Amino acid sequence: MAAELSGKVVIVTGGARGLGAAMAEAVVAGGGKVLITDVLEKEGADTAAALGESARFLRHDVTNEADWQAAFDLAVAEFGRVDGLVNNAGVATGELLENESVEHFRQVIEINLVGVFIGLRTAIPVLRAHGGGSIVNISSAAGLTGLALTAGYGASKWGVRGLTKIGAVELAESRIRVNSVHPGMTYTPMTAGLGIQPGEGGYPGTPMGRVGVPEEIASAVTFLLSDAAAYMTGAELAVDGGWTAGPTVRALTGR
User: Fold this and answer.
1) Can you name the residues that pair with 87 across neighbouring β-strands?
2) What's the DSSP call for residue 121?
3) pTM > 0.90: yes or no
4) Where does the Ketoreductase domain lie (predicted)?
5) Is residue 242 in a domain?
6) Per the structure, how many domains does the chain have?
7) CB-CB contact of 84 with 15 (8 Å)
């Protein structure tokens, strides 16, 4: 069941496909309106068109301050206000720390962490002007534990987790809530190349034995956007099938 978001206007970055598209769809299903932003222009425009009059699309580089301002300006112009922001846009890495180039590390930090910072800073005056709102930062299970092969990605997602706490503390008086969601392995276009498959038994290293699907992450996000989460700020919500809870019995015993 979609969270109740009637009358709310939400910006979802990285919303062209995968997790972001599921989040945008969930906002509309809950009665809200959504501005989808992404660098993937055709896919983003197609996703917005499929959602009808409750959705718009804008090409948006999250490392660019002017693009961020344009996104908020468009959302206000089209829908009259902004009540929520989902900082979802990001890129992943898959290298050992010693093999990660400095250039690529910086690029990942710029998109995954600096982009979230710019989004937070741009959102503050707009949300404050409309009496507050909710910001949901998409971190990762890799932002809750040390995960090999994620030097840039893991560092950026730990940074998102910390930035979320700072935002929550600083903005509570303005009635702006800031929380983070930490997805585990989820079946999306970004992870399909890893050879994972959805369904029971497809990911035995996780206590639930499977990977997530985008709609399961989107449900957590829309809950945090909704008034049902009115007393939640600074929280970190793991949606990871129990992966960060600890090793499975199979991993410990081999059976």
Assistant:
1) 137
2) H
3) yes
4) 8-172
5) yes
6) 1
7) no
